[in-house]
Specification:
alpha+beta; ph1033 like fold; 3 helices; about 35% strand; globular
């Protein structure tokens, strides 16, 4: 049975079976975030959404899956990247605020991240159902955070983790 390494918010890791990676009864999400911000979140074991606002984070539940899509390497003026850059599961029950500076408090969720490979989106475009207009495929990502179906989640997760 295949297993993946999940990075827990505490920094400990655990091997989990492929069965534990099920999407049954979970919502699957895309979070659109520049790669530099994704890397910061993976190191800190958290995610933010929509520039630190809580609305979409409140819709998520413990165990929901998140796939991170990075249009650019660095926010706001980095080089184009157009790749899926991280995958993980929501590891807490509610969003919380974190102080980024004395004047800025962003909303976050804790995330258990899987080991994965950065995966360009272009080879997957024709197979992704959430991209309705293939000629304007980038439009959907303008919403920042949005739900995807199990088919799309499994396709992207498989490409990122090299499991079939």
């Amino acid at each position: 049975m295949a297993s993946d390494v999940i990075h827990r918010p505490s920094g400990a890791t655990a091997n989990v079976s492929a069965d534990a990676l099920s999407v049954q009864d979970m919502t699957t999400w895309i979070n659109t975030v520049s790669r530099d911000h994704v890397e910061r979140g993976v190191r800190g074991r958290f995610t933010q959404a929509n520039h630190g606002k809580p609305h979409m984070l409140r819709k998520m539940a413990r165990g929901d899956w998140l796939i991170f899509y990075s249009p650019k390497t660095v926010y706001p003026d980095g080089e184009p990247l157009q790749a899926f850059t991280a995958i993980g599961r929501v590891a807490d029950d509610e969003p919380y605020q974190a102080e980024m500076s004395p004047d800025v408090h962003a909303w976050r969720r804790n995330v258990d991240f899987l080991e994965c490979a950065e995966t360009p989106i272009r080879p997957l475009l024709e197979k992704l159902d959430f991209i309705e207009n293939k000629s304007q495929w980038g439009y959907k990502f303008r919403f920042g955070v949005f739900k995807i179906d199990d088919h799309d989640f499994k396709l992207i997760r498989s490409a990122m983790t090299r499991t079939r």
